[in-house]
Design goal:
The chain is elongated, with a radius of gyration of 26 Å. It is α/β, with parallel strands linked by helices. It has 16 helices and 20 strands. The strands form four sheets. It has a seven-stranded mixed beta sheet. A six-stranded mixed beta sheet has the order 6-7-8-9-12-13. The chain has a five-stranded parallel beta sheet with strand order 18-17-16-19-20, with helices on both faces.
Amino acid sequence: MIIAIAQTNYHIGNFERNTEKIIATIAEAKRKGADLVVFPEITIGGYLAKDLFRYRSFLDACETSIEQIAASCVGIACIIGAPVRSKLTKGKQLYNAALFIVDGAVKDTVHKTLLPDYDVFDEYRYFEPNNTFKCVDYKGNRIALTICEDLWNEHFPSLYPQDPMIELAKQQPNIMINVAASPFSESHFEARCAVVTAHSKRHALPALYVNTIGAHADIIFDGRSLVFDEKAKLIDVLNPFAEDLRYYQLNGKELVARQLTTVYKEPESIVNIHEALVLGIKDFFAKSGFKKAILGLSGGIDSAVVAALACEALGSTNVMGVLMPSIYSTGHSVDDAMDLVGNLGCLHEVIPIKEATEAFDNMMMKAFKGKENDITEENIQARVRAIVLMAMSNKHGYILLNTSNKSEAAVGYGTLYGDMAGSLGVIGDVLKTKVYQLAHYINRNGIVIPENTITKAPSAELRPDQKDSDSLPEYNVLDAILHRYVELEMSSKEIIADGFDEALVQRVIKLVVGSEFKRFQSPPILRVTRKAFGVGRAMPLVAKHPF
């Protein structure tokens, strides 16, 4: 039997486009001699469509799409993920399902057993878990078919006491197939490989792990579907961050690729983060119907990195950088920003904000009488810049990209309705130290981001001679603490035990906790770590934390 893996990028709710793509892929696989083509988890409708699953019209459209796809499955079969209505009188009225379609009809349906409800996942909100297990038979082969987390019970034994693969293995399958929608994070690929390897080895079965690719606002899927032979040897990895269609020959339990494969070598983490961010920007604009981006260019490293990523994703002529120097902006900052514009070839405008900030100062003079200048005046400058950028956005149809990094977002080093404005937070899940790594990677083939932008001390330039280090610890120390507290969810005691100064740890955590209300009003952030700010980190706004 020849099996095709279809690693696809779909658009949530875009049934016409998605269905056309699926049917075209099935036709292509059939032309290449495939007997079975496998698509990822909830390809129909889109993972995760969230509360769209509650709309009858959405589920009706899913069923219409299934009928159209089934009609194209003549002389070839497909496995495809979809939401399926249940007939239960109690419990959720929907299953996360994998459909086996052949001869123009759905012949078997497998329901997902282990429904995740952690981080960005909330499948128990919509789906009923499976409690029956049956392999799929086709052309003399018996397929142990599972859905994403169904393989991950060992990682959550208290939550998932039942192991679907152990139940299915009792029926003596000759291959295991897992359809998945596993989001990207910088360290997750190794975990996926380990999980699938363990099952393949335990049950002495070849394994196909079919993952989706594409970005849906904040969540990015990286593809990299996995293929293992019956000896649990990794024999193929599909393209990272791109669609792919590949073919494999199954003879009994022997699985071999029908195309040349190379030994996959996982690149450095920063390479994957770069590719993920580019895909995140590209899909956010394409799937939202937008074409042009705008951002403020300060001459600093954050805006330079975001500009470079946006130009790569959208094309330089679709990116507008706006320089908004104030009376505190240094000449080299303007020069660095202009050098960046020249290197990228993007559009630009120079709109000084001196007159606008002076107008605000004059307007507020009476109300502020007797008060010294402080952070209030600094924030006015940041908000004036946001007004300029949003005016350009409204007038010219640009979509504003936010350039705040994760370190700043964590400790509240940003101005609400100022430099925190935007439709998409591009590097809001990238710690400052990794922003520098991104800059060096962007410059791997030549200077794109000016050297002075990378080497100079970071500054918001909202007061004379201001430096980030005036308000924050050095970024290498700050980021080490933030990584432990936010991403690894360690307590202050555990972080201090790692050798960090107690007073500093308490101060940083207090800043993180005190900034929850700011992040609650932030734009969606492209997720590239195991714990990003946003839907995957749900914190109360007014709780007292045990620092």
